[in-house]
Design goal:
Blueprint (H helix, E strand, L loop, with lengths): L16 H12 L5 E4 H9 L5 H13 L3 E6 L2 E6 L1 H17 L9 E7 L6 H13 L3 E4 L2 E5 L4 H5 L8 E7 L6 H8 L2 H15 L10 H17 L15 H26 L2 E3 L9
Antiparallel strand pairs: 1-3, 1-8, 2-3, 4-6, 4-7, 5-6
Helix pairs in contact: 1-4, 1-9, 2-3, 8-9, 8-10, 9-10
Length: 285
């Protein structure tokens, strides 16, 4: 049975079905040796105003992209995480619960990366830049990228064409270097701050836990928070503006998440229709 509770337009603007599905799977399926029913996912996403057609279409695309496997048990269809999606979800888990939004223990070091590709290598250049941005690197100037602290570049460059043309250095800035100015050159500092300010404006005032479906609110909260922190390279806080909003936003996230959690977990257990994996592998379709 589909629950009719739908968040208001103010709380739930147009959210991407895949983003919410990733939140559901990362929160309630990841590392549990479980699979989740399609009808359960449709039910939960309906409470965020996402229709059945959009949910089914998104699940089909995720299966085609190798993110999910589909299993059938009787008349019921279940979704199972693939190794590829498991890796993605674990990265999100680390960013939310371990890494956090504030880098307060920076050791003063930088990872610097430079490369020079032929002009004809447009695709390779685009792919590398996308990977570097995902990993938190900023472009200081043509062909020179930097990231605070020691970054595991080997994982970032795995499978990159032209990796032999990439040079990596570990360094420290000279005492006369204007690090705040360097950060502004390499990253959109104002844009990152705006993401946190928007999050605070949206979630920091009203007590959403009293007025809406707890599970839907928590899923939306987590989806939006992960989207924000994925765009933040966690720059050294001592070189950021004094009113940097990451810490207040993180505090609001944790407080509201924890306030919703008990009820949200109970709702998820009732609505998601999880089933243990194991001997069902032969039923894959």
């Amino acid at each position: 049975m589909t629950h009719a509770t739908i968040l208001t337009d103010e709380l739930a603007p147009l959210v991407k079905p895949q983003s919410v599905l990733l939140t559901v799977l990362g929160r309630y399926v990841l590392d549990r040796d479980m699979m989740v029913s399609t009808t359960g996912l449709i039910d939960v996403l309906a409470s965020l105003g996402i229709g059945e057609h959009a949910t089914r279409s998104t699940l089909n695309r995720m299966v085609k992209r190798g993110l999910l496997d589909r299993h059938r048990v009787g008349r019921q269809t279940y979704m199972v995480l693939t190794a590829r999606l498991t890796e993605i979800l674990r990265d999100g888990h680390v960013r939310i619960w371990r890494t956090g939004a504030v880098e307060a223990n920076w050791d003063g070091s930088w990872t610097m990366l430079t490369f020079s590709f032929p002009e004809s290598w447009q695709r390779q250049r685009h792919d590398l830049r996308a990977r570097l941005q995902w990993a938190g690197f900023g472009s200081l100037q043509g062909g020179l990228w930097i990231a605070p602290s020691t970054t595991n570049v080997r994982e970032i460059l795995e499978g990159v064409e032209g990796a032999d043309r990439i040079r990596v250095f570990r360094s420290r800035a000279d005492a006369e270097t204007d690090i705040p100015a360097m950060l502004r050159d390499a990253w959109d500092i104002a844009g990152i701050a705006a993401l946190y300010c928007d999050f605070l404006e949206r979630w920091g005032e009203a007590d959403h836990s009293r007025t809406h479906d707890a599970l839907a609110v928590q899923l939306l909260l987590m989806t939006e928070w992960l989207d924000v922190i994925r765009q933040d390279p966690r720059l050294p806080v001592e070189h950021l503006p004094a009113d940097w909003p990451a810490a207040p936003a993180q505090r609001v996230f944790h407080e509201l998440h924890d306030r919703l959690d008990a009820v949200a977990r109970a709702e998820a257990a009732h609505r998601l229709e999880l089933r243990e994996l194991g001997p069902l592998a032969s039923e894959q379709t």
